Amino acid sequence: MEELIVAPSLLSADFADMAGALALMERSKADWVHLDVMDGRFVPNLTFGPKMAADLRRRTKMPFDVHLMTVEPESLVEPFAKAGANFLTFHVEATVHAHRLVERIRSLGVRPGISIVPSTPLSAIEELLPFVDLVLVMTVDPGFGGQSLIPSCLEKTARLFEERRRRALSFRISLDGGVNRTNYGECARSGADIFVIGSAFFSAEKPEKEVLAAREAFALGHADKSRRD
Length: 229
Ligand code: DX5
Ligand code: ZN
What we know:
alpha/beta, binds D-xylitol-5-phosphate, globular, binds zinc ion
């Protein structure tokens, strides 16, 4: 994956001005909109549901990267598919029949993704890797923005990158949580090709410059990694 996908997370936006947040993402030339869906059970926080996604859908053509941090994700995939999700990612810790859910998401015309929290090993998703379009590696314990990235999660990402290469698979690798200017380079060298950025984007004086900084660091980190591999 030569190009970086920059996906600002709406969790750090002003919830009273979500339309403004979308417009800011478009002006800043970000690539995707990351929608953090929290149910107060899988994580100790609450955000929004399918109606918010549907209302936002009418205001932008940017791809929607929906991150379900909910128990029973099965009950939400169809409403979010109808709301206009392009990618739908659920947590492997939240369901027993993950393969069935991945197939269901794809049957709804949406690209399936799976996510693992920091304490979940790669072995938990090995069987699913050929069936998904995206693996979201949480680099913080999910539930809040503005936390610090856990470095061991980048080591796990590097192993996932190797696994993808060894098995000639094509899923994208996304990092989510504490991704910012202090670690864009390390994130790129771990093999990730999607950066979810919440506080780094919305607390930036010039968010468009933040997107550029991520791209530049990715290009350098990626070139460095290719040289070393
Ligand atoms: C946390 C969410 C993240 C969060 C990232 O559970 O999944 O998407 O919004 O925010 P930052 O970049 O501030 O860590
Ligand atoms: Zn997220």
